[in-house]
Amino acid sequence: MTNHIAFIGAGNMACALIGGLLADGIAPDRLSATDLSIEKCASLHDATGIRTLQDNREAAAMADVVVLAVKPQVVRQVAEELAETIRKRQPLVISIAAGIRCDSLQTWLGGDVALVRSMPNTPALIQSAASVLYATPQVNASQREKAESLLRAVGLTQWVDDEALMDAVTALSGSGPAYFFLVMEAMEDAAKTLGLPEETARLLTLQTAFGAARMALESSDSSAILRSKVTSPGGTTERAVAVLEEGGIRALFQRTLAAARDRSIEISTDLGAR
Protein backbone atom coordinates (compact mmCIF):
# COMPACT_ATOMS: atom_id res chain seq x y z
CA MET A 1 0.00 0.00 0.00
CA THR A 2 2.71 2.45 1.00
CA ASN A 3 6.18 2.51 2.53
CA HIS A 4 5.58 4.06 5.95
CA ILE A 5 2.58 5.45 7.83
CA ALA A 6 3.03 7.72 10.85
CA PHE A 7 0.15 8.29 13.25
CA ILE A 8 0.38 11.60 15.04
CA GLY A 9 -1.55 10.74 18.16
CA ALA A 10 -2.21 7.31 19.57
CA GLY A 11 -5.75 7.52 20.90
CA ASN A 12 -8.54 5.00 20.43
CA MET A 13 -9.17 5.74 16.75
CA ALA A 14 -5.47 5.64 15.84
CA CYS A 15 -5.07 2.36 17.71
CA ALA A 16 -8.11 0.94 15.89
CA LEU A 17 -6.57 1.87 12.53
CA ILE A 18 -3.21 0.44 13.54
CA GLY A 19 -4.88 -2.80 14.63
CA GLY A 20 -6.81 -3.01 11.37
CA LEU A 21 -3.69 -2.44 9.27
CA LEU A 22 -1.75 -5.09 11.16
CA ALA A 23 -4.66 -7.51 10.75
CA ASP A 24 -4.55 -6.76 7.01
CA GLY A 25 -0.92 -7.91 6.93
CA ILE A 26 0.93 -4.60 7.09
CA ALA A 27 4.31 -5.20 8.74
CA PRO A 28 4.82 -3.44 12.09
CA ASP A 29 8.02 -1.79 10.84
CA ARG A 30 5.94 0.16 8.30
CA LEU A 31 3.95 1.87 11.06
CA SER A 32 4.84 4.35 13.78
CA ALA A 33 2.85 6.40 16.27
CA THR A 34 3.48 9.31 18.59
CA ASP A 35 2.12 10.16 22.01
CA LEU A 36 3.18 12.55 24.75
CA SER A 37 2.91 9.76 27.31
CA ILE A 38 5.96 7.53 27.68
CA GLU A 39 3.74 4.88 29.25
CA LYS A 40 1.29 4.97 26.32
CA CYS A 41 4.15 4.67 23.85
CA ALA A 42 5.59 1.68 25.68
CA SER A 43 2.20 -0.01 25.98
CA LEU A 44 1.40 0.44 22.28
CA HIS A 45 4.82 -0.82 21.23
CA ASP A 46 4.49 -3.89 23.45
CA ALA A 47 1.01 -4.64 22.10
CA THR A 48 1.74 -4.13 18.39
CA GLY A 49 5.48 -4.12 17.77
CA ILE A 50 5.32 -0.80 15.93
CA ARG A 51 7.76 2.01 16.62
CA THR A 52 6.46 4.59 19.08
CA LEU A 53 7.99 7.96 19.88
CA GLN A 54 7.17 11.32 21.40
CA ASP A 55 8.58 13.55 18.66
CA ASN A 56 5.92 14.35 16.03
CA ARG A 57 8.40 15.86 13.58
CA GLU A 58 10.69 12.84 13.75
CA ALA A 59 7.76 10.55 13.00
CA ALA A 60 6.56 12.68 10.07
CA ALA A 61 10.07 12.97 8.62
CA MET A 62 10.16 9.24 7.80
CA ALA A 63 6.56 8.88 6.58
CA ASP A 64 4.90 8.71 3.18
CA VAL A 65 1.51 9.00 4.87
CA VAL A 66 0.94 11.13 7.98
CA VAL A 67 -2.30 10.55 9.88
CA LEU A 68 -3.37 13.43 12.11
CA ALA A 69 -5.17 11.62 14.92
CA VAL A 70 -5.03 14.16 17.73
CA LYS A 71 -7.94 15.89 19.45
CA PRO A 72 -9.49 18.71 17.39
CA GLN A 73 -8.55 21.30 20.00
CA VAL A 74 -4.81 20.68 19.46
CA VAL A 75 -4.78 20.09 15.69
CA ARG A 76 -3.65 23.65 14.94
CA GLN A 77 -0.70 23.44 17.32
CA VAL A 78 0.37 20.04 15.95
CA ALA A 79 -0.12 21.04 12.30
CA GLU A 80 1.93 24.21 12.68
CA GLU A 81 4.64 22.19 14.41
CA LEU A 82 4.73 19.78 11.44
CA ALA A 83 4.46 22.37 8.65
CA GLU A 84 8.16 22.55 7.76
CA THR A 85 8.58 18.77 7.85
CA ILE A 86 5.49 18.28 5.69
CA ARG A 87 6.76 20.85 3.18
CA LYS A 88 10.09 19.05 2.84
CA ARG A 89 8.78 15.48 2.87
CA GLN A 90 5.51 16.11 0.95
CA PRO A 91 3.62 13.10 2.30
CA LEU A 92 -0.06 12.40 1.96
CA VAL A 93 -1.72 13.87 5.06
CA ILE A 94 -4.90 12.22 6.34
CA SER A 95 -6.84 14.03 9.05
CA ILE A 96 -9.32 12.10 11.18
CA ALA A 97 -9.80 15.06 13.53
CA ALA A 98 -13.52 15.77 13.76
CA GLY A 99 -14.68 19.22 12.69
CA ILE A 100 -11.44 20.52 11.18
CA ARG A 101 -11.90 21.73 7.61
CA CYS A 102 -9.29 21.32 4.91
CA ASP A 103 -8.82 25.06 4.36
CA SER A 104 -7.81 25.45 8.00
CA LEU A 105 -5.45 22.49 7.79
CA GLN A 106 -3.90 23.87 4.60
CA THR A 107 -3.29 27.20 6.34
CA TRP A 108 -1.68 25.58 9.38
CA LEU A 109 0.40 23.13 7.32
CA GLY A 110 1.71 25.83 4.99
CA GLY A 111 -0.52 25.23 1.96
CA ASP A 112 -0.46 23.05 -1.18
CA VAL A 113 -0.61 19.83 0.85
CA ALA A 114 -2.01 16.55 -0.49
CA LEU A 115 -4.74 16.27 2.12
CA VAL A 116 -7.54 13.81 2.79
CA ARG A 117 -10.13 14.48 5.47
CA SER A 118 -11.90 11.44 6.87
CA MET A 119 -14.69 10.79 9.32
CA PRO A 120 -14.54 7.23 10.69
CA ASN A 121 -17.10 6.43 13.37
CA THR A 122 -16.61 4.63 16.67
CA PRO A 123 -17.36 1.08 15.40
CA ALA A 124 -13.86 1.37 13.92
CA LEU A 125 -12.82 0.04 17.32
CA ILE A 126 -14.21 -3.36 16.21
CA GLN A 127 -13.32 -3.01 12.51
CA SER A 128 -16.94 -2.15 11.62
CA ALA A 129 -16.65 1.55 10.81
CA ALA A 130 -18.45 3.61 8.22
CA SER A 131 -15.78 6.06 7.04
CA VAL A 132 -16.27 8.91 4.59
CA LEU A 133 -13.34 10.58 2.83
CA TYR A 134 -12.83 13.90 1.05
CA ALA A 135 -9.69 14.74 -0.94
CA THR A 136 -8.26 18.12 -1.86
CA PRO A 137 -7.22 18.72 -5.50
CA GLN A 138 -3.56 18.06 -4.60
CA VAL A 139 -4.32 14.38 -3.93
CA ASN A 140 -3.50 12.12 -6.88
CA ALA A 141 -5.10 8.78 -7.77
CA SER A 142 -2.40 6.74 -6.06
CA GLN A 143 -2.77 8.73 -2.87
CA ARG A 144 -6.55 8.34 -2.94
CA GLU A 145 -6.04 4.58 -3.08
CA LYS A 146 -3.62 4.74 -0.14
CA ALA A 147 -6.14 6.69 1.92
CA GLU A 148 -8.98 4.37 1.04
CA SER A 149 -6.91 1.26 1.82
CA LEU A 150 -5.99 2.68 5.21
CA LEU A 151 -9.59 3.46 6.20
CA ARG A 152 -10.86 0.19 4.71
CA ALA A 153 -8.80 -1.59 7.36
CA VAL A 154 -11.51 -0.68 9.88
CA GLY A 155 -14.65 -1.02 7.76
CA LEU A 156 -16.62 0.44 4.86
CA THR A 157 -15.44 3.54 2.97
CA GLN A 158 -17.24 6.11 0.83
CA TRP A 159 -15.98 9.28 -0.91
CA VAL A 160 -17.69 12.67 -1.19
CA ASP A 161 -16.69 15.34 -3.70
CA ASP A 162 -18.00 18.27 -1.65
CA GLU A 163 -16.39 18.87 1.74
CA ALA A 164 -19.53 20.64 2.95
CA LEU A 165 -21.21 17.23 2.98
CA MET A 166 -18.91 16.16 5.81
CA ASP A 167 -21.26 17.95 8.21
CA ALA A 168 -24.13 15.75 7.02
CA VAL A 169 -21.83 12.73 7.29
CA THR A 170 -21.08 13.68 10.88
CA ALA A 171 -24.81 13.89 11.57
CA LEU A 172 -25.53 10.49 10.00
CA SER A 173 -22.67 8.07 10.56
CA GLY A 174 -20.52 10.06 12.97
CA SER A 175 -23.26 10.52 15.56
CA GLY A 176 -25.40 7.66 14.25
CA PRO A 177 -24.21 4.90 16.59
CA ALA A 178 -25.64 6.87 19.52
CA TYR A 179 -29.05 7.00 17.83
CA PHE A 180 -29.12 3.22 17.50
CA PHE A 181 -27.92 2.77 21.08
CA LEU A 182 -30.79 5.00 22.22
CA VAL A 183 -33.33 3.03 20.17
CA MET A 184 -31.98 -0.22 21.60
CA GLU A 185 -32.10 1.22 25.12
CA ALA A 186 -35.73 2.24 24.60
CA MET A 187 -36.65 -1.19 23.20
CA GLU A 188 -35.02 -2.93 26.17
CA ASP A 189 -36.87 -0.72 28.63
CA ALA A 190 -40.19 -1.33 26.86
CA ALA A 191 -39.58 -5.09 26.82
CA LYS A 192 -38.93 -5.09 30.56
CA THR A 193 -42.22 -3.29 31.19
CA LEU A 194 -43.89 -6.12 29.27
CA GLY A 195 -42.42 -8.59 31.75
CA LEU A 196 -39.27 -9.87 30.05
CA PRO A 197 -36.23 -10.43 32.30
CA GLU A 198 -33.52 -7.77 31.88
CA GLU A 199 -30.94 -10.05 30.30
CA THR A 200 -33.48 -11.59 27.93
CA ALA A 201 -34.65 -8.13 26.86
CA ARG A 202 -31.05 -7.05 26.28
CA LEU A 203 -30.00 -10.10 24.25
CA LEU A 204 -33.15 -10.15 22.12
CA THR A 205 -32.78 -6.43 21.38
CA LEU A 206 -29.10 -6.72 20.41
CA GLN A 207 -29.57 -9.79 18.24
CA THR A 208 -32.60 -8.27 16.53
CA ALA A 209 -30.63 -5.10 15.74
CA PHE A 210 -27.66 -7.13 14.51
CA GLY A 211 -29.82 -9.41 12.39
CA ALA A 212 -31.74 -6.52 10.82
CA ALA A 213 -28.51 -4.67 9.99
CA ARG A 214 -26.98 -7.79 8.47
CA MET A 215 -30.09 -8.46 6.38
CA ALA A 216 -30.03 -4.87 5.09
CA LEU A 217 -26.32 -5.08 4.23
CA GLU A 218 -26.64 -8.38 2.41
CA SER A 219 -29.86 -7.57 0.54
CA SER A 220 -30.26 -5.60 -2.68
CA ASP A 221 -33.64 -4.40 -1.41
CA SER A 222 -34.08 -0.95 0.12
CA SER A 223 -34.87 -0.55 3.80
CA ALA A 224 -38.43 0.37 2.87
CA ILE A 225 -38.91 -2.86 0.91
CA LEU A 226 -37.36 -4.96 3.67
CA ARG A 227 -39.71 -3.34 6.16
CA SER A 228 -42.73 -4.05 3.98
CA LYS A 229 -41.69 -7.70 3.62
CA VAL A 230 -41.83 -8.24 7.38
CA THR A 231 -45.01 -6.19 7.89
CA SER A 232 -47.94 -8.53 7.34
CA PRO A 233 -51.33 -6.84 6.80
CA GLY A 234 -53.33 -6.90 10.00
CA GLY A 235 -50.41 -8.27 12.01
CA THR A 236 -48.47 -7.18 15.08
CA THR A 237 -45.69 -5.48 13.14
CA GLU A 238 -48.12 -3.39 11.10
CA ARG A 239 -49.78 -2.11 14.27
CA ALA A 240 -46.41 -1.35 15.91
CA VAL A 241 -45.06 0.48 12.86
CA ALA A 242 -48.26 2.51 12.69
CA VAL A 243 -47.62 3.74 16.23
CA LEU A 244 -44.10 4.84 15.25
CA GLU A 245 -45.40 6.63 12.17
CA GLU A 246 -48.18 8.34 14.13
CA GLY A 247 -45.58 9.46 16.64
CA GLY A 248 -43.72 11.30 13.90
CA ILE A 249 -40.59 9.16 13.79
CA ARG A 250 -39.57 10.43 10.33
CA ALA A 251 -39.88 14.10 11.26
CA LEU A 252 -38.05 13.39 14.50
CA PHE A 253 -35.08 11.92 12.64
CA GLN A 254 -35.13 14.85 10.22
CA ARG A 255 -34.80 17.22 13.18
CA THR A 256 -32.22 14.98 14.83
CA LEU A 257 -29.85 14.90 11.85
CA ALA A 258 -30.36 18.59 11.10
CA ALA A 259 -29.45 19.47 14.70
CA ALA A 260 -26.29 17.37 14.54
CA ARG A 261 -25.33 18.85 11.17
CA ASP A 262 -25.83 22.40 12.43
CA ARG A 263 -23.71 21.70 15.51
CA SER A 264 -20.98 20.23 13.29
CA ILE A 265 -20.92 23.46 11.28
CA GLU A 266 -20.68 25.51 14.48
CA ILE A 267 -17.79 23.42 15.79
CA SER A 268 -15.93 23.63 12.47
CA THR A 269 -16.30 27.40 12.52
CA ASP A 270 -15.14 27.68 16.12
CA LEU A 271 -12.07 25.47 15.55
CA GLY A 272 -11.13 26.85 12.12
CA ALA A 273 -8.34 29.14 11.04
CA ARG A 274 -8.79 32.82 11.81
What can you see in these coordinates?
It is a single chain. The protein has 274 residues and is of the alpha/beta class. It folds into two domains: 5-166, NAD(P)-binding Rossmann-like Domain (Rossmann fold), CATH 3.40.50; 174-267, ProC C-terminal domain-like fold, CATH 1.10.3730.10. The chain contains twelve helices and eight strands. The chain has helices at residues 12-23, 38-48, 56-61, 75-89, 102-109, 141-152, 166-174, 176-193, 198-218, 223-229, 236-246, 249-271, and strands spanning 5-8, 31-34, 51-53, 65-68, 92-95, 115-119, 129-135, 155-159. It has an eight-stranded mixed beta sheet with strand order 3-2-1-4-5-6-7-8, with helices on both faces. Strand 2 (31-34), helix 2 (38-48) and strand 3 (51-53) form a beta-alpha-beta unit. The longest helix is centred in the C-terminal third of the chain and has 23 residues, at 249-271. The protein is elongated and about 70 Å long. The mean pLDDT is 96.
